[in-house]
From TrEMBL:
GO molecular function: 2 iron, 2 sulfur cluster binding; metal ion binding; oxidoreductase activity
Keyword Metal-binding among UniProt keywords: yes
Superkingdom of origin: Bacteria
Domain FAD-binding FR-type per the UniProt entry, residue ranges: 13-117
Domain 2Fe-2S ferredoxin-type: 247-332
PANTHER family: CARNITINE MONOOXYGENASE REDUCTASE SUBUNIT, NADH OXIDOREDUCTASE HCR
UniProt keyword DNA damage present: no
Keywords assigned: 2Fe-2S, Flavoprotein, Iron, Iron-sulfur, Metal-binding, Oxidoreductase
Native source species: Rhodopseudomonas palustris
Protein name: Oxidoreductase
Length: 332
């Protein structure tokens, strides 16, 4: 796959881009490919913390975020697990179809919106499908430090559990449980049984599809887990990005006012008017498109901000969110 050299296409991305080479590609399971990247110039990769992700510049107009699932202690390569999405908008499809060992790519430096609390007495890691990827880096770090943890790996079937063979071979294999949707009742993941009651200084991490995360968090709260010890990262936003009443958006610094139609996102309306909008995932999960709100009430539909940040109403993810007021004034 020949990928053109690209420059940073929007503010808010990692400050420095890295030219990398694909050194290994493995078709690891049901629609999952594992990619290993190494610096094109042979230098070490920047260090990363467990839970971090990188921007992968697939083309000048397509940038996607993927969690780093390798060992954070290994700076020779970065490792990604990428699922082919059935409704891919060009990202995972291009990687699965075209990317091979020896190809060149450009990536951003690691960023972390899902950090591991190193001072925790114990950690509970719960991954749904490809959402296990950031938890693999966490497990490697916790095992190296001798920290107490358990990892729940939930998948539709054994064929979809791409990382299960390596987890069985890992040093921490006894701490891992595999849950399969097509397994018997004892093997399927059950929030009532498999989420422990809260104990002192224990932290829970969950990553995967938004409905899966919501079910895990709801049960954890029911069992007494305080919000400060619940951590999550979604790969897709739960809200609908389009649909609803039309409203106006004024981009103050650009001197532009646009009408956002019912079948249109704020970002699309602003881009059509010539406003340079920072975009990346376009699904409300990466935070790249967050813009300060000067006036008006957002209708938040992203999976990046916390509920308290939503309540503050001072930033909006323009790739997916809408407005509760007739007009929004944004600092862009």
């Amino acid at each position: 796959m020949s990928v053109p050299e690209v420059q940073p296409i929007a503010a808010g991305r990692a400050d420095r881009l890295i030219d990398v080479t694909v050194v290994r590609r493995v078709n690891a399971g049901d629609g999952i490919v594992i990619i290993e990247l190494a610096p094109a110039d042979g230098s070490p990769m920047p260090c990363f913390e467990p839970g971090a992700h990188i921007d992968v510049h697939i083309s000048p107009k397509i940038v996607r975020q993927y969690s780093l699932c390798g060992d954070p202690a290994d700076t020779s390569t970065y490792r990604l697990g990428i699922k082919l999405e059935t409704e891919s908008r060009g990202g995972s499809l291009a990687i699965h179809r075209d990317l091979e060992a020896g190809d060149r790519l450009t990536i951003g430096e690691p960023r972390n919106n899902f950090p591991l609390v190193r001072s925790a007495r114990r950690s509970v890691l719960i991954g749904g499908g490809i959402g296990v990827t950031p938890l693999l880096a966490m497990a490697a770090d916790l095992e190296r430090r001798g920290a107490d943890f358990e990892l729940h790996y939930c998948a539709r079937s054994r064929a979809a559990a791409a990382f299960w063979p390596e987890l069985q071979r890992s040093r921490y294999a006894p701490k891992v449980r595999l849950h399969l949707d097509n397994g018997d009742g004892g093997q399927r993941f059950a929030v009532e049984r498999d989420i422990p009651s809260a104990t002192a200084d224990e932290h829970l991490y969950v990553c995967g599809p938004a409905p899966f995360i919501e079910s895990v968090l709801a049960e954890a709260r029911r069992k007494g887990w305080p919000e400060g010890r619940l951590h999550h990262e979604a790969f897709t936003a739960a809200g609908v990005t389009e649909g609803g009443e039309e409203f106006d958006v004024t981009a103050v610094r650009s001197g532009v006012t646009v009408r956002v139609l019912s079948d249109q996102t704020i970002a699309a309306a602003l881009l059509a008017a010539g406003v340079d909008v920072p975009l990346s995932c376009e699904q409300g999960v990466c935070g790249t498109c967050l813009i300060d709100v000067i006036e008006g009430v957002p209708d938040h539909r992203d999976a990046y901000q916390t509920e308290s940040e939503w309540a503050a109403n001072d930033r909006i993810a323009v790739c997916c969110s809408r407005a509760r007021s007739a007009r929004l004034v944004l600092d862009i």
